[in-house]
Each structure stands twice: as structure tokens, then as C-alpha cells.
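Example record used in the benchmark description.
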Amino acid sequence: MANIKLTKSELKNQKDNLKQFQRYLPTLQLKKQQLQSVITQINNELNEKMSERSELIDGLDTWVAVVAENTIFPEELRLENLIQPDKVVCDIDNIAGVKIPVFKELSFKEIVYDVADYPLWVDTVLVKLREIARLDALVETLKKQSEMLGNELRTTSQRVNLFERVKIPEAKENIRKIGIYLGDQQTSAVVRGKIAKKKSMEAAQ
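Model output (C-alpha cells):
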């Protein structure tokens, strides 16, 4: 604990600091709770979407044999050339003062192909692959949200701990210490005053 001036002025400063800390702490605690709640929701959605993605991939097992035909296509007709993500479109949301991306959609480059060049199953597989790509983009956005809010939660938790465990107890202890010192000084002044008065009365006799 830093040395403090044992004065009435410093006592006022410490009391003002204590009021400020006690007024600000509930706001920090509320922010911490809000961040924890939102992060839990995001992580739940993240797990849900990752499970959904896994189910889609598992569902492609029935297409493995036909997708293998992709290897016999010429390079310019490979299936991966038919699915080219363009950009991830996101909105911006504000959570407890943190601006986070909110997934809206994944756009794909418009690719025209001749259906005569491909078997009938290609359209079905492309739909599934696009959905997997969309889920990949959504999952990455959710991970980014969780990371950004997690960083803010750590900072907020540190501030809550600082106020609860350091600043408020320190201010209370400083107020107590200054109060005791000023009380002792006042008592000493009264005692000295009485002694001086007694000596004056004795001298006058």
C-alpha cells in the first residue's frame, strides 16, 4: 500500500475514491455477467453448427463412390472448380461495448457449367458442398465472436477483481488509518489545551 498523507484533504480524496469505486463496480459486474451469458450462447450455437456440419459430411458417405468419379474429370471440369466462395457477408453487433461480426451469408462466384459434361448427381453434391462451406464460414465467425468477447471478459474480470480485492479495500483502509490519526491528533490537541489552561490558572493564583 502506498504511503498516504494523513490529512483532512487526503481523507476527503479517499472517501471520494471509495464512492467512485463502489459506484463503478456494479457496472463492471453487470458487464461481466452479460459477457459470460452471451459467450455461453455463442459456444452453444458453435457446438450445434459444428455437429450440423459433421452430420452433413457424414451424409456425403453415400456419395463417396460417385464423387470419386471426380478424379476422372479433366482438370478444368473438376468439382472444386464449380464451388468458389466469393465473400463472407457480416453485420456488426455491439455486445457490452464490443463490436463483433454477425454472420449473414456466404456468397459464391457465379459459375456456369454445361450439364452435359457432368453426371446427374453433381447438382445434389454441389448443394451439399455449398452448405458445408456456408457452415464453415458461420463457424469461423462464431469462433471470432467468442474470441473477441472472451478477451473483453478477461479484461473486465481483471477490473472487477482489481476493484473488489484492491481498490475498495485499500481506500477503506486508508480512510480508517487517516481517521485514527486525525482522531489521535484531535485528542492530543484537547489534552494539550487542558494542560495549558491548567498552567494558566495556576500561574494566575
